[in-house]
Inverse folding.
């Protein structure tokens, strides 16, 4: 468990450095839901290739790191299709309504002491916690 | 390529790479770790707090650097300060997102970072997420202007 914290911290520092590069060099605020969402709803227009390039980096680096983990990582993802569909729809709609997710509101918002970032982060962590209690401990579906 | 110069594309790739590597190394693409963080009444896993805390250190420094400047290293304008309004789109959206996040243990960043190794379940999640993102603008308009949407 202590190693998990250290890797969490190292990974976090890399995530924040990515956000710093995106802000100070590209002049953009790093939020995964915004980067993906604008491509999906067509609002990306002139920044399409920049967003695709960012996403290519997000996909490629884990592929490069995977061999050091023996080529496989257990993601413990559920095989319950209705749960995956419901969760995906909620995440997709919710992050676009709120205009941010854990990277946008959590990392980039809270680090600039944005009230919107704090409110959003409190809401999704509380809702997630209540959701896990209900769906895991009461209903037993996850 | 719109107004995206090769330099912008390169640094977007670098930023995305750092983001993806960070998500991978911190274990945030492991749904059990995320649900473990949210599962206060189960076997609670605090790793996510370290990830979030670690990520905020360089990001906070970047905001401080940005405060004294008007242009990026590539000479383009820095983005305007994001809005400050706390409205129902922010609260309702974040609550819906949180429920989905808890259900599957996935948020947008990690779902993309694990595309190469997440398997079939992940594709189902990502397809549903993209669908949700595609229908969100209509819902957003409804919340902005409930009467006109009738």
């Amino acid at each position: 468990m202590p190693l998990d914290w250290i890797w969490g911290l190292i990974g976090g520092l890399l995530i924040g450095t990515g956000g710093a590069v995106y802000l100070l060099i590209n002049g953009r605020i790093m939020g995964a839901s915004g980067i993906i969402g604008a491509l999906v709803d067509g609002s990306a227009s002139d920044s399409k290739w920049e967003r695709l390039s960012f996403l290519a980096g997000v996909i490629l680096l884990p592929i490069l790191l995977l061999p050091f983990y023996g080529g496989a990582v257990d993601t413990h993802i559920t095989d319950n299709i209705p749960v995956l569909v419901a969760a995906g729809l909620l995440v997709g709609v919710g992050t676009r309504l709120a205009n941010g997710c854990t990277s946008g509101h959590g990392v980039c918002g809270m680090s600039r002491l944005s009230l919107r970032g704090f409110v959003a982060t409190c809401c999704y962590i509380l809702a997630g916690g209540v959701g896990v209690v209900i769906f895991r401990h009461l209903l037993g579906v996850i | 390529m719109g107004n995206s110069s090769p330099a912008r594309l390169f640094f977007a790739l670098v930023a995305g790479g750092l983001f993806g590597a960070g998500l991978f190394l911190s274990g945030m693409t492991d749904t059990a770790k995320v649900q473990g963080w949210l599962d206060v009444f189960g076997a609670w896993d605090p790793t996510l707090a370290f990830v979030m805390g670690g990520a905020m250190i360089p990001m906070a420094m970047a905001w401080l650097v940005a405060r004294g400047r008007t242009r990026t290293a590539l000479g383009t304008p820095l983005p305007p300060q994001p809005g400050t309004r706390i409205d129902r789109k922010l609260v309702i959206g974040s609550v819906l997102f949180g429920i989905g996040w808890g259900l599957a243990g996935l948020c947008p960043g990690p779902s993309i970072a694990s595309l190469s190794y997440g398997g079939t379940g992940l594709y189902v999640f990502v397809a549903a997420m993209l669908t949700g993102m595609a229908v969100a603008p209509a819902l957003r308009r409804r919340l902005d202007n409930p009467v006109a949407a009738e």
About this structure: Chain A touches chain B through 112 residues (CB under 8 Å). Residues 33 and 100 of chain A are 6 Å apart (CA to CA). Chain A has six helices and no strands. Residues 115-138 of chain A form the longest helix (24 residues).
